Amino acid sequence: MTVSVLILNGPNLNLLGTRQPEVYGSTTLADIEALCEARAKKLGIDIAFAQSNHEGALVDMLHAARGVHDGVILNAGAYTHTSVALMDAISSVMLPVIELHLSNIHAREAFRQHSYIAPVAIGQICGFGAAGYPLAMEAMVSHLTKAQ
Length: 148
Ligand code: DQA
Description:
- This protein is of the alpha/beta class.
- The longest helix has 16 residues, at 132-147.
- The chain has five helices and five strands.
C-alpha cells in the first residue's frame, strides 16, 4: 500500500512569503506545498497538505488522520510552545509525528526553545527553512519503512 503522510501547518504559516521574511524566508506556503508534491512523486508516496490558524481545528485534523495517513509532519507554529492539547492529541492518535520548523527555534527567544511537541514526536527538524519539509518527508519514509 502507498505510504500517506499528512503535512500539517499551524497558525500564521498561511502568511509565509510576506511574514518576517528575514526569519522565515520568501517562500510561500503554496511554494512549499509544490515542493512537497514534487518530493512525494519522487518518493512514491501520497501527501495531504493542510493549514489552520485554529488550535482545535489542528487537533481535529490529527484525530482525522487516524486510519487515513501513516504519519504526520507538523509545523505547529506558535502552538508548539503553548499547546498541551496538541501534545495530548499526538499521544492519543498513536501516529508517528515529526516536528518541523523553518527557523532554528533553539537559537531564538527563550520561550521558543520549549516545545510541547518534542516529547511526543519521533524527531525534530528545524533551521533549514522550506528545505526542511522535503527533509522531513525523507525522514518519515525512512522511519515508516524501517518500522515495517
Ligand atoms: C515556527 C517557529 C515558531 O516559534 C513560530 O511561532 C512560528 C513558526 C517555524 O516554522 O520556524 O510560527 O514554527
